[in-house]
Amino acid sequence: MWTANVFTIFPEAFPGNLGVSNIGKALPRNVWQLNLIDLKDFPVKSDRIDSVPYGGGAGMLLSPITFEMAYESLSEEARYTKKIYFSPRGRQLKQKDLADMSKSSGITLLSGRYEGVDQRILDHYGFEEVSLGDFVLMGGEVAAMAIIEGCVRLLPGVVGEADSICTDSFQNGLLEYNQYTRPQLFHELSVPEEILSGNHERIREFRLNQSKEITRKNRPDLWGEYVSSEMNKIR
Predict the structure, then answer these.
(1) CA–CA gap between residue 160 and residue 197 (Å, rounded)
(2) DSSP readout, 32-46?
(3) What is the torsion angle, in degrees rounded to the nearest 10, for the CA atoms of residue 112, residue 117, residue 121 and residue 123?
């Protein structure tokens, strides 16, 4: 079963949004499981799990001794899953990363707090530093939920209309096209005639062109990658 192992000092933050909708319904069906490891259960001397950084500086760092004891509580299988630590200095995660992780047996996430963790934890246990974007949060719990949700929704049987995943943003290197529903006219704004045409090929082409234009305008970085990829296909 696909398992998300999460090291945190705030296990009460979970399951949070992971307990609702299709993601939450999949939990009791044993499609996936959430394994929370409370770092506060593994204190070192003086009942602390952190200490001041060498060389000075503000904040406290998670002790490598605490983490070592917590890590040893993992199953043998969990120790071989991909390990992620959330950090603004990490590389930004991509949809392909989530797709790859969803095909594995699970992931292991370290949610930092305050000033962070001792670097030797990341080095010794092989954690990859990743970021959700160019912004800073108080801790990694929200980021952990985001990644878990992104992976679980790709597991078989979680999303009701599995085909809808194929049209998601980033699936083909482009952002998703605009969507419309009833009524046909809303505050003098009408559904594009191409969508109402009933011609599936015309609709497909219109949506593809919309995706291209939206990507080009909103994410020139993605657009550049898409253009390069398309050029390589015809070489």
Answers:
(1) 27
(2) EEEEEEEGGGS--GG
(3) 100
Separation of alpha carbons 34 and 29, rounded Å: 13
Beta bridge partners of 2: 32
Question: Catalytic positions, please?
Answer: 88, 115, 153, 168
Cα–Cα distance between 81 and 148 in angstroms, integer? 14
Q: Where are the beta strands (DSSP E) in 45-190?
A: 50-51, 61-62, 82-92, 106-110, 116-117, 128-131, 185-186, 189-190
Q: Residue 234 contacts by C-beta under 8 Å, 6 or more apart in sequence? A: none
- Per cent of the chain over pLDDT 90 is 84
Per-residue model confidence (pLDDT) at position 114: 79
Query: What is residue 163's predicted lDDT score, i.e. its pLDDT?
Result: 57
On whether the CB atoms of residues 222 and 173 are closer than 8 A, the answer is yes
Phi-psi category of 66—alpha, beta or left, where left has phi over 0 and alpha has psi -120 to 50?
alpha
Both tokens assigned to 23: 């993601």
pLDDT digits (tens, 9 = 90+) for 16-75: 999 999 999 999 999 999 999 999 999 998 889 999 999 988 889 999 999 999 999 999
Domains (range + CATH), the chain: 2-152 (3.40.1280.10), 169-233 (1.10.1270.20)
Q: pLDDT confidence of 162, banded at 50, 70, 90?
A: low
Residue 205 and residue 159: Cα distance in Å, rounded? 26
User: Per the structure block, which two tokens stand in for 201?
Assistant: 């090929």
